[in-house]
Write a structure and sequence with these properties.
By secondary structure, the protein is of the alpha/beta class. The longest helix has 19 residues. The chain is globular. It starts with a helix and ends with a helix. The structure holds adenosine-5'-triphosphate and magnesium ion (MG). The site of adenosine-5'-triphosphate (ATP) has 19 residues, from α2, β7 and α10. The site of adenosine-5'-triphosphate has 19 residues, from α2, β7 and α10.
């Protein structure tokens, strides 16, 4: 076992870590149905509108539905990578506005418990495409298991989505608490979705941010607030991302503002992609340690 792990580590160390690395972001919540998939998709499109190259992974294995939100039927899913030995390039689906998409698929034999050969294959395949992107988004399922929290540890950032409902807030708090048990330093970004009003959303953000600071001693970043907007449901029924279905709607303009602010903050921080530990190296640690 040690020999296998060493071999895998060596292999990854030999891969070029000096290349530009994409920023990897997981979108999570505690409670389900808060808008993760809609936000992952529309935020990806917003980044693309600002000139970024984005890959979106549907990681809500078994329940993934981003293809439905885009009105696309995925021919292949990540399951085929292992089942039919396809190349990751065969899985790439051209989504709207130049984003690329990889479908989660049903019945993936627990991705988080891949054996040596499969995890190595996955890492090799990811390495083939990752550097083509500025951002890679992972739309995660609701809830937290130890395995998927470990997977989250390979991310550069985590977007935490909540609604103003108390149950959603407490579940978001619990998710952040769990994450902090594993890594206190991973950047967390909060977004309140489906707020009845701007003040309600801002208040939710403030309270949650304050609770995390006080009890978890963790400073979280704020992405912003999106209001409840019927446009989202209409766009979902129409199987079109709301940003494209109704570009002039309040929610579309707000999401573009949130995305613009996010990018401006990044510029201010003068983030240097080259000096990060690569996503692949972090994932590799996850696979080796997880075994
Ligand atoms: N801002 C909003 N205003 C109105 N409806 C919204 C808004 N955001 C999301 N919705 C609705 O909420 C529902 C759930 O959204 P979505 O599927 O994106 O959530 P999710 O967090 O991915 O759910 P799951 O946990 O099941 O994966 C959808 O039917 C969508 O139309
Ligand atoms: Mg979802």
């Amino acid at each position: 076992m040690i020999d296998q792990a060493t071999a895998l580590r060596k292999k990854l160390a030999s891969m070029n870590n000096d290349q530009e690395q994409p920023k990897t972001i997981a979108v999570i919540s505690g409670k389900g149905g808060v808008g993760k998939s809609n936000l992952s998709l529309n935020f990806s499109i917003a980044l693309s509108k600002f000139g970024k190259k984005v890959l979106l992974f549907d990681m809500d294995i078994g329940m993934g539905n981003i293809d439905i939100l885009m009105g696309i039927t995925a021919q292949h899913t990540i399951v085929d990578l292992f089942k039919n030995n396809l190349s990751i390039k065969d899985l790439l689906i051209k989504g709207p506005k130049g984003i690329d998409y990889i479908a989660g698929g049903n019945g993936l034999p627990n991705l988080f418990k891949l054996d040596e050969k499969k995890s190595e294959y996955l890492l090799d395949q990811l390495q083939l495409i990752l550097n083509d992107y500025d951002y890679v988004f992972f739309d995660m399922g609701a809830g937290m298991t130890e395995e998927n929290v470990k997977f989250l540890m390979a991310m550069d950032e985590i977007f935490v989505i909540t609604t103003p409902e108390p149950t959603s807030i407490t579940d978001a708090y619990s998710a952040m608490k769990y994450i902090c048990l594993f890594d206190q330093t991973i950047p967390l970004y909060l977004l309140v979705n489906r707020a009845e009003s701007e003040p309600e959303g801002v208040q939710t953000l403030k309270r949650l941010k304050q609770a995390v600071l006080q009890f978890l001693v963790k400073e979280v970043e704020v992405l912003g607030v999106l209001l409840y907007d019927k446009t989202v449901q209409k766009a979902v029924s129409h199987q079109e991302p709301f940003l494209l279905y109704a570009p002039k709607s309040g929610i579309s303009r707000h999401l573009l503002d949130i995305c613009r602010n996010y990018l401006e903050k990044k510029n201010e921080q003068n983030h240097d992609k080259n000096h990060q530990i690569s996503f692949i190296s972090k994932l590799q640690r996850f696979f080796v340690r997880g075994r």
